[in-house]
Amino acid sequence: MPVRLPDPERDFIGQYNRLSASQVNTWKACPRLWYYEKVRRFVMPQIPILFVGRAVEEAICKTLKETPTLIVSTAPEDIYAPTPLDDDGRPDRDFAQKWPAEQLLTLPESKWPNDKNSLLEWANRRVISHLTASLETMRIEWAKHDRKAGDWELDVDIERCERMAKNGIRMHMDEVNACFESISKEEFEAWRAGGRHHWPAPDGRGYSLDGHPLAQKGPITLIEAWEIARPWFVDPDAKPFMMNAVHPEHWFQGEYDLVYRWGGQNKIVDIKSSLGNSDRSGDYVEQLRMYAYLWWSTHDKELVDSLEIWYLAADSIKIVQVPSAEELESIGDELQSLWSELREETPSIEGCPPNPAPMRSFGPGGVPSDETPEKSRCGRCDWSHICPGGEFTDEHPNGGSFHLPGSVTETEATPLNGIKTRHTVTGRVHAVINGKHPRITIAEGNSAFADVQIKASEYKDDGPTVPEDLKKGELVCVENAFFQINYKGALILKVDPFARILRLQEGDEEISLNSPRARWNVTGTVVYRTEKRGVSARGDWCRKGLMLMDEFGSLKIEGWQADWGSQYDMLSPGDKVFITNIGIDGWAALTRGEMYRASRLHILHD
Fold first, then answer.
1. Are 526 and 571 in contact (CB under 8 A)?
2. Which of 365, 388, 501, 566 falls between 20 and 30 A from 245, CA-CA?
3. What residue ranges define each of the domains in the chain, with the CATH number in brackets?
4. At what angle do helices 280-298 and 21-29 cross, to 10 degrees?
5. How many CA atoms lie within 13 A of 45 on its CB side?
6. CB 325 within 8 A of CB 333
7. Which DSSP category does 406 fall into?
8. How big is the chain by its Cα radius of gyration, in Å?
């Protein structure tokens, strides 16, 4: 099975604390790079090519999901209704109504492709239709990102994208043709009878069939080969990261691109929208080796039959040797040891030295090359300007006192790892407001009030975040919530999955609404700036921000453009700054600073 869900009764690690192939490759490239991106949560510049790869893969998978017996080549790209999903965002096993493919009438056989060339032509037209829509979706997503870089119109070559998509379809057609020519009668007869895998390849149909509706008689047909050869892939309608394969002990997870399972084979394919002529080609091989281990560990020590990398821009398939059982044992030991080192407890920055591995050289198609790479790993790293292994030769701030312009006394800054991000307070329910955005108001006497915004209904350790039937006058505790004072001076508490409201009994200890600290002064080095723009009913809006780091922590700080002041436009990555009167907000394990009208940004000079 290409999907293995976690066992909630045995999973003490959790989705966000597992190891992944990308983390392993990042660590091996440079431990400090891993620390910046996985612990400090620095986000690399989001260039268009990152989104193009996703669009091409999505277009290919949407085409593979379809069938020419239901859809003509010129049909709209969204002719299939969305896949019914369960509460977790996976295809719903219990959905009893008509699935998307069942909502369409079968075309007359005269409309079906009747040879390999016409089937390929149909698939090429479908993939271009999907690619157009997927590219536009990704362009919008890229434009919304606060770390977008580059220029979509200049950087995205539509013709190149179309060639890559068609190359992927042709590679799949090789599988279809092989299936047509070599599949056993027993296998295609079982398919005709309705046989399906526990996790079937997405085809717009449900999980069980009483005979396949497209079954023919006699020898296998080309259309049947298209259906049978269809690989498993993540249904494009499923929510992200809901179709992972999770290690039985829950410390490693991965998500395969394609898994071919006809003819008794289990072939894992990784799709890459690139030439394969960069250092990353070495990572792709290691990723597939780790996926071979993941399959082996989730299938009673069954080896996969083959591993392939499809380099779509090079129109080339690279075959990766399947590791032996002894090699897989060794890979597993290494991965488990690395999980203990990186995830059982978060390592310190000193435990993640700036010690990059040498760059590797490859030619198109991922072929190893003896040429010397033009740049060192540090020379191409996004964080060299703040890393002692790169250009940074100073020390990062860590709190301290500063004499700011216009101030008679010094102002104290709190180290970023010393900020208390969540608070617990008590009060009496003053009002309960139900609806789309539920909230309650709590009061302390007649003078202090706080607006409690309910942003999540389920608590992280099960149970509701809010008791049922709260009534005015009840004494409650708001536990572990984000605490803010908005620009009007009103107190706000935000309840997310890590916070909750509890009923108290008369006489229980009370914690004043005025006890938490809502505003902080911080200092640090600017890692990068961020920007989001949009249009609302009130007109154009812009939110700007920056990622700040000091010696032992980091914090993303955002605010409306007008709240940053004139010095923001003078900022460069690597500058040291002091920011006063910021608030703290966030969601779950992510925390951010909030700029207000009373906040001030000061660039520090040596």
1. yes
2. 365
3. 1-42+244-382 (3.90.320), 45-237 (no CATH), 421-503 (2.40.50.140), 520-603 (2.40.50.140)
4. 140
5. 14
6. no
7. T
8. 28
Rounded Cα distance between 594 and 583, Å, is: 5
In this structure, the number of other CB atoms found within 10 A of the CB of residue 103 comes to 13
Q: Note whether 91 and 234 are within 8 A (CB).
A: no
- Measuring CA to CA, which residue among 285, 247, 436 is closest to residue 365? 285
Amino acid at 508: D
Spatial separation of the C-alpha atoms in residues 205 and 484, rounded to whole Å: 48
495 in Cβ contact with 585 (< 8 Å): no
Please report, as a single letter, which amino acid is at residue 92.
Answer: D
What type of residue is 261? Answer: R
Judged by DSSP in three states, 259 sits in strand
| Structural contact between residues 365 and 312, judged by C-beta atoms closer than 8 angstroms | no
* Closest residue by Cα to residue 140 from 214, 48, 70, 211: 48
Exposed / middle / buried, residue 270 (Cβ in 10 Å: 0-12, 13-18, 19+):
buried
pTM exceeds 0.70: yes
**Mean pLDDT, 10 residues at a time, the chain of 606 residues:** 89 88 96 95 95 96 96 94 92 92 93 94 97 96 95 96 97 96 94 93 92 92 96 94 93 96 95 93 96 96 96 96 96 96 91 93 91 84 93 89 82 93 94 85 89 91 88 93 86 93 90 91 96 89 96 94 92 94 90 93 83
